[in-house]
Automatic annotation (TrEMBL):
Monomer. Binds directly to the core enzyme of the DNA-dependent RNA polymerase and to nascent RNA. This is Transcription termination/antitermination protein NusA. It is found in: Cytoplasm. It comes from Desemzia incerta. The gene is nusA. SUPFAM superfamilies: Nucleic acid-binding proteins, Prokaryotic type KH domain (KH-domain type II), Transcription factor NusA, N-terminal domain. Belongs to the NusA family. Pfam families: KH_NusA_1st, KH_NusA_2nd, NusA_N, S1. Residues 133-199 form the S1 motif domain.
Amino acid sequence: MSKELLNALDDLETEKGISKELVLDALEAALVSAYKRNYSQAQNVEVEFNHKTGKISVYAVKDVVETVYDSRLEVSLEEAVKINSAYEIGDKIRFEVTPKNFGRIAAQTAKQVIMQRMREAERNIIYNEFIAYENDIMQGIVERQDNRYIYVNLGKIEAVLSKQEQIPNEVYKPHDRIKVYVTKVENTSKGPQIFVSRSHPDLLKRLFEQEVPEIYDGVVEIVSIAREAGDRAKVAVVSRDEHIDPVGTCVGPKGQRVQAIVNELKGENMDIVEWSEDPSTYIANALNPAKVIDVVFNEQTNSCLVVVPDYQLSLAIGKRGQNARLAAKLTGFKIDIKSESDMLAADEAEEEVGLVSTDDLVDGALVDEPIEAIVDAEEVVAPLVEDPEVEETLVADDETIEELLNGDETDEELEEQDTTED
């Protein structure tokens, strides 16, 4: 059995890449536990595995003391000297206690340890293999699904596709081949766990890298992606070579390149726009297919006002505001869209309001020269007040007004006065 075990460990190291020394260390620790469990022993035990012969020996380790209180853990100095006269108090002596039938226990323990080490090694191999695919794209086969996940077979392991990472309204059937984006790889106690996505924006990026060689080579670069999975996406691209059209390169001859991506994503619409250093041009491109007349920026709020023709207002906004929303995600600006007529009406209203200034209003009346008018009025009124006749008239008027306010004259008296005057 021992030589067969050694040969098995050699084969294990060659085929699975599992270190022989690590297995032997684990095996010795497991045999110690097996010995204590099967023989109800509590003393200090050591297991020695001969790497040449494969023989397994069990030793009980005891301390040399003057007076023995626990024979399982201690040995007297008198007995120790009989074994070897050089022993002193405090030394440790190993006594072989290998049971006759320990070979069977050792074989069972060795099997368990080797199987455990094999599982751990396979998990590590799978983890190290798939951690390299994190943030990358892979092709798998749909195997099954439950209320939480869809399980995708990636070859050596099953990946999980959660509902949040699925494309809305996409139906997954067993044995369907799909491309998924690996978002996270975890090494758990139950083995590696791989999480994949179909709705991640970087899935689109990886698909373009597969279909467009210029993107893979770095001649054309994807600057930004805005995506509403299953419905529509916008991709901003730029060319590092002035002789290469980035948009035409991504579309491909007769639209073959982008059509392959659309087919993979079950009909998701693609808008490929050219990135520009000029924010106005970039925003105008992002609102494609709508035409943009003007872009007015507000640097304080990182927003902009986009003016479009009246007949293209609904096209610029898009269905349920989708076109404007994706353009905002793509460019990083908050976008407000107005029609050309609304913008002209707003400008005219501002101009009309701008003609009247609060500085030109005196008691709510509009005057051309308010300050001079007030001065002239004072110059006219001042001499009149100084005139005696005018002063008497003013005093009389004041007395009449005072009498009216005090109610000294009745309505009948006032009527008689009016009749007399007539």
